[in-house]
Amino acid sequence: MRQREHELAVFVSTHRYWSDLPGPDRVDARSRLKHAPETPEKERTEQS
């Protein structure tokens, strides 16, 4: 399981999307992704 988690972390962190963002925006976007809820907002409201 940890190996898969590592593979996914490397995949996400090295994705070309990040190179399109300037430094400060990249840091902010990665931080928001890291702290995003596991379930998207739309799905959470539909489940209620």
Order of helices and strands: HHH
- Helical content class: 55-70%
Largest sheet: none
Query: Rg from C-alpha positions?
Result: 14 Å
Quote the average pLDDT: 82
Rounded to the nearest angstrom, the distance between the terminal CA atoms is: 31 Å
Shape: flat
For the secondary structure, the number of strands is 0
| Uncertain runs | none
Describe the protein.
This protein has three helices and no strands. The protein has helices at residues 2-13, 23-34, 41-47.
Sum this structure up briefly.
By secondary structure, the chain is mainly α. It contains 3 helices and no strands.
Keywords:
mainly alpha, 48 residues, 3 helices
How do the strands and helices of this protein lay out in sequence?
Blueprint: H1 2-13, H2 23-34, H3 41-47
